Amino acid sequence: MIGMAWLSSRPVGRVNQGRIGAESDLAATNPACRISYKLSLERRDMMQTANTTGKGRPLLVDQVLDSLTSFIRSEGLCPGDRLPSEAELFQRMQCSRNVLREAVGRLTSLGLVDVRRGSGMFVGTADTVRSCALLLRSTMMISISDLIEFTEFRRAIEGYAARQAAINATASELAELNALAMAIDQADISREESLQRDYAFHLRLMEIGGNRLMAAILESLLDFLQASMRSTTATPRDVETSRQLHVAIMDGLLRRDPAAAESAMELNRQHTIDRLNRLEETP
Fold first, then answer.
1. CATH assignment of 142-281, given 1.20.120.530, 1.20.120.450, 3.30.1330.60, 1.10.3210.10?
2. Start-to-end C-alpha separation, the chain
3. For residues 166 and 73, what is the distance between their CA atoms, to the nearest angstrom?
4. Is 153 exposed, middle or buried (0-12, 13-18, 19+ CB in 10 A)?
5. DSSP character for 112?
6. Which uninterrupted H or E stretch holds 241?
7. Which are the contacts of 162, defined by CB distance < 8 A and separation ≥ 6?
8. What tens digit of pLDDT does each residue of 33-46 get?
9. pTM above 0.70?
10. 268 alpha-carbon distance from chain centroid
């Protein structure tokens, strides 16, 4: 029987750091999760405010989630190890079944818990990098200022990826990137299709010139950026500037000029920031 003292010593009804504790521990061991920590603290403050106005369910769910992740870590459980049953967790946590199930559902969506019908709950086998990227996605509450910060972060990691791709990409990889880049701003496609093609180009560039961790982080950020950019209007000048910048990125890559590729990527990201700043200034 797995020990359960951790539950009685961490009462769900007490306002504690909730999910932030789990995230800070993950941040200490995996750099993918450090990015979400500051925003997670802000999210905690918002949840605590909601709790004082009678809307405490989100905080309770996060406290249960914190307890579950802390248990997995403190017990040294490995992927595939069995977790306590729902009935046992329900009795000891003294929370509603709906709160418990929502917390378990979140962990399941992250790949950190595997619920097997008729068999019980087990520690998940998800890839750590992917799980951290999903954790990052699940904690974000997006504003224009957040999107600007995300884009500034992209400027750093994508500039590095462009530089490395100019040095290390194979001829076939460069041909693939060129085809993706040239397809982004064609006149006869919808805005949605253009965003999808832009997504594919930048993610593939990160895979070629960056690394697995960078690609996982970027994949999470791109989902947010795409969702928000869909609500903005691209002027003809924006479209033409975007086309020219993608041409410049590929020119640097094809000439094997790391500095030129990196500079063009930074200009591309600055163009996005300028558009977001215009949106933020719109009354």
1. 1.20.120.530
2. 60
3. 41
4. middle
5. S
6. helix 236-254
7. 205, 209, 249, 252, 253, 258, 261, 262, 264, 265
8. 444 444 344 444 44
9. no
10. 21
